[in-house]
Specification:
The protein is an alpha/beta fold. About 45% of the residues lie in helices and about 10% in strands. It has a five-stranded parallel beta sheet, sandwiched between helices. The longest helix is centred in the C-terminal third of the chain and has 21 residues. It is globular. Bound molecules: adenosine-5'-triphosphate (ATP). This is ATP-dependent zinc metalloprotease FtsH. It comes from Thiohalomonas denitrificans. Acts as a processive, ATP-dependent zinc metallopeptidase for both cytoplasmic and membrane proteins. Plays a role in the quality control of integral membrane proteins.
């Protein structure tokens, strides 16, 4: 049951308009759409396309969202693997899972492979408890082997996300591997407003609710926090049987979301 012969992929039903703010990151990723749509046009001219793209930024800034939006825009299958899946599995499973995933993605190219939380397997090798032969290391070695195994003709892009680029094994960052880096930042006030507008679009807001004011009062919030804020506010309002969401709900929800964020900080290793 551990070997998966068929990797399943979805073509995400989202586009770049679902990613608010992050203009710089969107611009860089947008260039890849054309290639995924018409790889032959680029191949004919011998153009080299980046293979591995590393999305770097704090938790909840939209790295997964942006990768899915790229697949959605290009209309290609999105194969995903979360590096934390490999914690506490049997030895060898991570490597074979990686092998199967790459094989399936290449077979169905053009396609995208997305590796979430790359830092949880991609930490510098030789630091594991298993004397350098642990599961994590085997999985990492398999990822490196797969990246090196591309001939340059496959129209499969490998995107990976990390919020700890500083701990990554330098081998991952060498030319031909994750050599292209895209930064996602915590949103500024204007970007927070754009994110709030997007997530509040289907929420009936009371007339006193000014999203601009809320954007101003949420410095340090990531996109995921703002999404939570809107959702928690709506839940509070629904519990009260309100017709719409008012400022009081937002205030209470903001305290909850902030407590959640602090909890994360306290318990992070
Ligand atoms: P992590 O590092 O924790 O995996 P991430 O950077 O991959 O986080 P996502 O998982 O993409 O972040 O974000 C979670 C959710 O937060 C998204 O599905 C989306 O609903 C919302 N979100 C995050 N950033 C944005 C954004 N820029 N615009 C709109 N929604 C956003």
């Amino acid at each position: 049951f551990l070997e998966r012969s068929t990797e399943r992929a979805e073509i995400p039903n989202i586009s770049f308009s679902d990613v608010a703010g992050q203009e710089g990151a969107k611009r860089e990723v947008r260039e890849l759409v054309e290639y995924l749509k018409e790889p032959d046009k680029f191949r004919r001219l011998g153009a080299e396309i980046p293979r591995g793209i590393l999305l770097m930024g704090p938790p909840g800034t939209g790295k997964t969202l942006l990768a899915r939006a790229l697949a959605g825009e290009a209309g290609v299958p999105f194969y995903t693997i979360s590096a934390s899946e490999f914690i506490e599995v049997f030895v060898g499973v991570g490597a074979s899972r990686v092998r199967n995933l790459f094989a399936a993605a290449k077979k169905n190219a053009p396609s995208i492979i997305f590796i979430d939380e790359l830092d949880s397997i991609g930490r510098t090798r030789g630091t594991g408890l298993g004397g350098g032969h642990d599961e994590r290391e085997q999985t990492l070695n398999q990822i490196l082997a797969e990246l090196d195994g591309f001939t340059g003709r496959e129209a499969t892009l490998v995107l990976a996300a990390t919020n700890r680029p500083d701990v990554l094994d330098p081998a991952l960052l060498r030319p031909g591997r994750f050599d292209r880096h895209v930064n996602l930042d915590l949103p500024d006030r204007e970007a927070r407003l754009a994110i709030l507008k997007l997530h509040a679009a289907k929420v009936p807001l009371a007339s006193g609710v000014d999203l601009e004011q809320i954007a101003g009062g949420t410095p340090g919030f990531a996109g995921a926090d703002l999404k939570n804020l809107v959702n928690e506010s709506a839940i509070l309002a629904a519990r009260e049987g309100s017709e719409n969401v008012d400022l009081r709900h937002f205030d209470e929800a903001r305290d909850r979301v902030m407590m959640g964020a602090e909890r994360q900080l306290i318990f992070q290793p």
